[in-house]
Design a protein that fits this description.
By secondary structure, the protein is α/β, with parallel strands linked by helices. The longest helix is centred in the last third of the chain and has 18 residues. The chain has one domain: Rossmann fold (3-Layer(aba) Sandwich), CATH 3.40.50. A five-stranded parallel sheet has the order 2-6-1-7-8. Strands 3-4-5 form a three-stranded antiparallel sheet. Strand 3 and strand 4 form a beta hairpin. The protein binds cytidine-5'-diphosphate (CDP). The site of cytidine-5'-diphosphate has 16 residues, from helix 2, helix 4 and helix 8.
């Protein structure tokens, strides 16, 4: 049975990353968080005081940008590194959430990050989540999932996630951020978020975490058997 490529796309905060991570663990696959790369790039541009929307500054920012992932041996969890520094917690802050979708509209930055994502996922046995994975990064993915959930549910889940990281954020601020990113991500000219015709939609509003993971694992196993 051959290994497959699984692309999980969907709206902000519907649980793509945690689900994708769990699915990868069950299947023994590599998990790649493409959103973490856009978040790390956003932090880099902020740190360097560069504006991604200015073509020359975008080139300058990309030249000094190096993103990698490492497994933390204590927790077994994957963490994001920016130019050698662990930025896993910093990139999940609301400050980055407020800026990331703007950077993600810039074509030159997307081109570079997409090329890196394609390299990272070049072997089979990969689960990658994001907004353009099934459309641009891996258009030939064996399994494409489009995850959704209603805004209220997504905001409450994100609030809890942030609280677990020690960040207390008002529910309304989270709702506005998620809805705002959905709008920018879906309407941008460059690789907008959309449900591909060959993607399976999974609405997680009324599913438990275990339920949504089980559903995707089941879809994956059916594809693996056919492979
Ligand atoms: O986890 P959450 O749903 O908050 O978002 P994320 O996956 O960390 O992605 C953060 C932002 O990066 C998104 O709102 C998009 O603007 C951008 N992104 C993208 O444009 N393309 C991707 N493949 C992944 C993320």
């Amino acid at each position: 049975m051959g290994k497959i490529v699984i692309a999980i796309d969907g709206y902000s905060g519907c649980g793509k990353s945690s689900t994708a991570k769990a699915v990868a663990k069950i299947l023994g696959y590599t998990y790649i968080d493409s959103g973490a790369m856009y978040r790390a790039a956003t932090l880099h541009f902020l740190n360097e005081n560069l504006r991604p929307s200015k073509p020359e500054e975008a080139i300058q920012g990309l030249q000094t940008l190096s993103i990698s992932f490492k497994i933390n041996p204590e927790t077994g969890l994957q963490e994001t590194y920016l130019n050698g520094k662990n930025v896993e917690d910093e990139i999940r802050s609301m400050q980055i959430s407020h800026r990331v979708s703007e950077l993600a509209t810039v074509a030159s930055i997307r081109r570079e990050l997409v090329a890196q994502q394609q390299r990272l996922g070049s072997g089979k046995g990969v689960v990658m989540d994001g907004r353009d994975i099934g459309s641009v990064v891996f258009p030939d993915a064996d399994l494409k999932v489009f995850m959704t959930a209603n805004l209220e549910t997504r905001a409450k889940r994100r609030q809890l996630e942030l609280l677990e990281k020690g960040q207390t954020v008002d529910l309304e601020e989270i709702k506005e951020n998620l809805a705002g990113r959905d709008e920018v991500d879906s309407s941008r000219a460059e690789s907008p978020l959309m449900k591909m015709s060959d993607a399976v939609e999974v609405d997680t509003s009324n599913l438990t975490f275990e339920g949504q993971v089980a559903q995707i694992v089941q879809l994956a196993k059916a594809k693996i058997e056919m492979n």
